[in-house]
Design a protein that fits this description.
Structural class: mainly beta
Distance between the termini: 23 Å
Order of helices and strands: EEEEEEEEEE
CATH topology: OB fold (Dihydrolipoamide Acetyltransferase, E2P)
Strand order of the largest sheet: 2-4-6-8-7
Shape: globular
Number of domains: 1
Radius of gyration: 13 Å
Helix content: under 10%
CATH class: Mainly Beta
């Protein structure tokens, strides 16, 4: 089953992803079972926390962050078998809560998106998803 979501503004006027590029380690907190269609593609959605930068810029975030992983239409092509409480490494565009738009499964958290090529990736349980 796929929930429908209105098209949200996750892109800058020049077509690049909104937010700041971040490469982080984190912990999977919560999973949402159904994919959600956003911007004409299906996304796997989850919450992560305890973000720590892996590129030496000192970024960290202790609270929950909403993650939307594009699966179809240029995404990673498959759902990732996440389990709560497990570590994950991600790279994508981080949008602070004050600049993000709340939506399905996201009550107004910061957002990490564009976790697929050419911008980002996900490394989980030893496997890289781009």
């Amino acid at each position: 089953m796929t929930d429908q979501m209105p098209n949200l503004v996750f892109r800058n006027p020049d077509g690049t992803g909104a937010g700041t590029l971040r490469h982080v380690s984190a912990t999977v907190v919560k999973l949402f079972g159904d994919r959600v269609r956003v911007a004409d593609a299906e996304h796997q959605q989850l919450w992560i926390d305890a973000l720590t930068s892996l590129n030496g810029d000192g970024f960290s975030y202790a609270g929950n962050v909403f993650v939307a992983i594009r699966i179809t239409d240029g995404g990673i092509g498959q759902d990732i078998p996440f389990q709560p409480g497990t570590p994950v490494e991600l790279q994508g565009m981080f949008i602070p809560a004050a600049q993000a738009t709340a939506g399905v499964n996201d009550p107004g958290l910061p957002v990490l998106h564009f976790t697929h090529s050419p911008v980002g990736f996900v490394i989980y349980d030893g496997k890289t998803y781009k």
